[in-house]
Amino acid sequence: MKFRPCIDIHNGKVKQLVGGSLKDKGNQADENFVSEKDAAYYANLYKKDGIKGGHIIILNAGGSEFFKKSKKQALAAIKAYPNGMQIGGGVTAINADDYIRAGATHVIVTSFVFKDGRVNYGNLKSLVKAVGKEHIVLDLSCRKKDGQYYIVTDRWQKFTDEVVNLETLKKLSEYCDEFLVHGVDVEGKSGGMEEELVEMLSKFTDIPITYAGGIGSKEQIEKFAEISKGNLDFTIGSALDLFGGKLSYDEIVEEYNK
Question: What is the CATH classification number for the domain harbouring 161?
Fold first, then answer.
C-alpha cells in the first residue's frame, strides 16, 4: 500500500475541487484550494521525494477555452518529472502516444473508452494499439446509484450503464496496466472514504488499483489499510498541507513511500 500523489489542473491552475461539483458549462466547480504554484513545482517535489505513479489530471473539457492552458501546465509537469507520472484528461487513441513520448509513464482514460453508456471496445483496442496495454490506466471513477457504483464520465457528470464490480474489473484488466478509481461523491470532502467500494476493490489483485476520495486523516488512512488489506494504493489531495489541508505531506511520504 503506497501513497500516490496528484496534480489536478483546472482553468490553467493547480487546484483541489469538490469532485461532484464539476460543470463544463462556465468551467465551474467548488474549489477547496487554488495554488499559487504551477504544476511543475509539484512534479519537481514528487521527483525529489522519489514518489512514482502519481497522476496529473486536466479537468477542463477539450472544447473549453481553458483546455490549452491546462494542458500546457500538465505537459510542463511531465517534463519536470519524466517517467514519473501518469496523465489524464481528454486522452484518445490519437493523442495518447504524444503524452507517452513527452514523458508520461501512462495515459489515464475514461470518456474515450466509455461511450454512450457502455464500453466501446473499438476505442479501447485502438488505444491499446496506439500505446500498448502497459501504458494504459483505466479510470473507473464512480458514483453510487440504486445501491451500486456506476462508472461516470465527462469529468464525472454523466452516468454510464457500467457497474464497478469484480466482473468488470476482470474484463477490463485485459486492456490496461492499472486502474484509478475516484469515489466521486466523497472526493474533495475529506469526510471519509467509500468503504463499501474500497472493500470490493481490495478483492481484485490482478493489477494495481489506486483509490482516491475522502481520505482526510491518519485515522482514515489506518482504516483504509484495514479495509483494503493493504491491496490498494491511495491518493490524498485536499487533506494534505500541500493543498491547504492538515495532513503532513512529509509524514505521509515518510510512512507510505518506502
Answer: 3.20.20.70
